[in-house]
Specification:
172 residues, mainly alpha, 9 helices, 83% helix, globular
Length: 172
C-alpha cells in the first residue's frame, strides 16, 4: 500500500497534478507512521510531500527539517532518490539556493552511481540538465540530458527517454 501510494504520488507529480500528488504522499505517510515500519520510506515520502507542496505554491517548506530526513535515512535504495528530491526543492524554493542545489544534485548522482540505482541516476542527470538550463549553460544541459538518455535507455524507461530527447531537441 505504501509503495503504491508513493508511486501514485510520483506519477501525479510528474503529470503536474501536485494536489493529487500530495494526497497520495499523505496516504503513504499515514500508513507508514501508523504501522511503524520502513522508517526510511517514511523519510522519502515526507521529502516527496514537501516537494509537491512547494510546486503547489506552498512556501512553508522547512529546509532544516528536510535535511534531517536525509540524515535519518538508512536505506541505500532511497539515498539518491531523497537527495534528488531535496535538490529539486532547492531549485524551486527561490533563486538563492542554486549553488546548494547543485551540490545536492552532485551528491544524488554519486549516491545513485554507488548504489547502482540506475533509474534514479538517469532522473538525477535530467534534473542536473534542468539546473544548467536555468543557469543558461545550454552545452552542459545538453551533456547531462545525453547522459540521462543513455542511462534511462539502459533501464528500458522508454517514456522518459522520449521526454529527454524532446527536451534535447528544444535545446538545440
Amino acid at each position: 500500500n505504501t509503495f503504491a501510494n508513493q508511486f501514485l504520488g510520483d506519477t501525479y507529480f510528474d503529470l503536474g497534478e501536485y494536489q493529487s500528488s500530495q494526497n497520495y504522499y499523505n496516504k503513504a505517510i499515514f500508513i507508514l507512521e501508523h504501522s511503524r515500519i520502513m522508517p526510511s520510506h517514511l523519510f522519502l515520502s515526507k521529502t516527496s510531500l514537501a516537494r509537491a507542496k512547494l510546486m503547489n505554491k506552498d512556501k512553508g517548506v522547512n529546509l532544516s527539517e528536510i535535511f534531517k530526513l536525509y540524515e535519518y535515512n538508512k536505506d541505500k535504495c532511497f539515498e539518491g532518490h531523497i537527495l534528488r528530491y531535496i535538490s529539486d526543492i532547492l531549485l524551486n524554493i527561490d533563486d538563492q539556493h542554486m549553488n546548494e542545489a547543485e551540490d545536492w544534485i552532485k551528491r544524488a548522482i554519486e549516491a545513485n552511481e554507488r548504489n547502482n540505482t540506475r533509474f534514479h541516476l538517469g532522473m538525477s542527470y535530467t534534473l542536473y540538465a534542468d539546473f544548467f538550463k536555468r543557469k543558461g549553460d545550454l552545452p552542459e544541459a545538453r551533456q547531462n540530458l545525453n547522459k540521462a538518455i543513455e542511462v534511462l535507455r539502459e533501464c528500458g524507461a522508454d517514456g522518459w527517454v522520449e521526454k529527454a530527447e524532446e527536451e534535447l531537441l528544444r535545446l538545440q
